[in-house]
Amino acid sequence: MTDFERQCVDAGLKMTGQRRVILQVLTESADHPSVEEVHQRTKQVDASISIATVYRTLHLLDEMNLVQRHDFNDNFSRFEVNLEHHHHLIDLESGRVIEFQNDELEELKERIAAELGFELVDHRLELYGRRKKTR
């Protein structure tokens, strides 16, 4: 059993063969796949997995905070395993999603929350941009 499968079981998720395949696809994804992309990838492993099963599983994993659902200004959701804290920079021209971490940014967010009298318990940061044109 993988670490992520163990997390899911510990959170109360019943582990079925089809859910294992969906979890495998999610943990092996280098991108942020949509429901349809997850479904296409799972069908390569197990042709019996329906898109309804993928929808239900991703919805359940999102409710359990085991995956994060992102919209990235698209007309559909994308998903990623919720293993580490990071942020996203979305290239508006190509749609490419770049993950990044920044210690200065983390300190700034904590400081802003504290200055406003809050303890920061959760947040998301998505930056949208275009490549600078070089002359």
Task: Give a summary of the structure in a few sentences.
With 135 residues, the chain is α+β, with helices and mostly antiparallel strands. The protein is 42% helix and 16% strand. The strands form 2 sheets. Strands 4-3-5 form a 3-stranded mixed β-sheet, with no helix packed on it.
What tags apply to this protein structure?
2 domains, Dna Ligase, domain 1, 42% helix, 5 strands, Arc Repressor Mutant, subunit A, alpha+beta, globular, three-stranded mixed β-sheet, single chain
Description of the structure:
This protein starts with a helix and ends in a 6-residue tail after the last strand. The chain is built from 5 helices and 5 strands, in the order ααααββββαβ. It has helices at 3-10, 17-28, 35-45, 51-63, 103-115; strands spanning 67-70, 78-81, 87-91, 97-100, 126-129. The strands form 2 sheets. Strands 4-3-5 form a 3-stranded mixed beta sheet, with no helix packed on it. A two-stranded antiparallel ribbon has the order 1-2. With 135 residues, the chain is α+β, with helices and mostly antiparallel strands. The relative contact order is 0.13.
